[in-house]
Structure formats: structure tokens, C-alpha cells
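Fold it.
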Amino acid sequence: MAETDGKITVHQTEAITTIRLNRPDKLNAVDREMLDMLDAEVNRLHQDESVRVVVLEGSGERAFCVGADLNHIATFTPANIRKWVNDGNRVLSRLANLPVSVIAAIHGYAVGGGLEFALACDLRIVSEDSSFGLPEITHGWFPGWGGTHRLLNVIGEAKAKEMVLLGERIDAHTAQDLGLVNRVVPRENLTDEVQQIAESLAQKSPVAVRAAKAALTRNPMPEDGYEISYEALALSTCFTTPEVQEGLEAFLSRKREA
């Protein structure tokens, strides 16, 4: 099975399904159409018992995903932001809650919502040229797709606060030292490394994998929990502040002048 058109592509070979974020000219930034397509595919995967492993990757040479497309959200009202946050959280929670192994194959930038996508995966296999960050704080808001919750679970409170509050970008080896990623490989070896891991996982008992994943997932994020409601409310409030409004207006002005 393969879908070759659209803002995501999906390919299944035997028990392994690969989802590719497919907006390379936009560094795989997420807009409403892409989010809705991901939503539909993740829902399908929950029903497809032939799938044992899911791989999430980005197209193009420069990025896994840079998060939300500012062109898309720059004119959002607070109500639009709440819906965007709730919908994105639902998709990523459904991805994280799949009963099969989910691997993020990361090259280039994995920042903002792109890192939140990666955090919703079970394993993060990355190339040496990859970099990671949650820069939202520098724009006047904060990660809104479960990133704060999942980052805390993965690297602990102190380092999670450092990443979120400073908004700095880190390289692949620093990310590995923090426990943010599992393996770092040369760029040219990334596809083969991910394929080897996926094939190994696909050979494991699906019942055992499901049970092990459930046992190892600390404080799983529900699809409609307090954390999601808080993020939606807090982010919509952030978007009413002068800092955010001025920043988005400056962005739109640059776009009009281009």
C-alpha cells in the first residue's frame, strides 16, 4: 500500500508502515491539511492489525519537521489556537498510544512541534546533522502539543525546564547525552539503521510488545486530560499578549514585502 500524493505519504511493506511528512519546501512545517491527514492515518493504524511497526520521517534534505507553519497560525484567534492545540494533542496522543512500536527517523531540524512529534514516538534514531529545540518561548508562547509533559518524562524536570525556558537548540550528541534520542548515526546510514531496527521489532511478539510498551510508558498522556486543557487555555492566552501580536504582525509584514 502506498500513497504518493499529499502533504504526507504512507507506504507499507509487510508489517512496517512508514509515514513521511511531505512539505520539504516548508521544512515539513505542519498546517491544517497535514494535521488532518496525520489524524486520519493514525486512526487507520489503530484499526490495522497487520501493522507491527510505524516509522515517522521527514522528506527533503534539511528537516524532519520544524513544527507549526507560521503562515498558517499567524492570523489565528484565541479560539483558533485552542482548537489547533486540542487537535494536535489528540493526534500525537493517538500516535503515542498506538499498541505497536513507533520510530522517529530524524535528520536535520526537529524543532518546536517537530520535536513534539518525535517525543510521541517510542524510539528516536537520528543522524549526526540533526538538531533539536523548543524555541516557542522566544516567540512569546510555549510548546502546546504535549511537549512539556513528554519531555519531562524523557529527560527529567531540570533539563526539560532548561530546554523549554531557554529555547536553545542542541545538537545530536548533546541530545543523546540527555537521553532525548536513542542512537546517533552518520546521515548516510540513517535509513539502513532505522530499517534494521524496524525489522527486528516487527519480528517480536505483538502481544509482548504491546504489554512491554504499556509497562514502560510512565504517566501516559490521555487524549482529553487536564494537561491538554491547560495547554489549550494557556496558549490561547499567550496569543493575546503584545509580544506575540507584535511578532506575528512583523512576520506577516515581511511576508507581504517579500
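The chain has one domain: 2-190+206-257.
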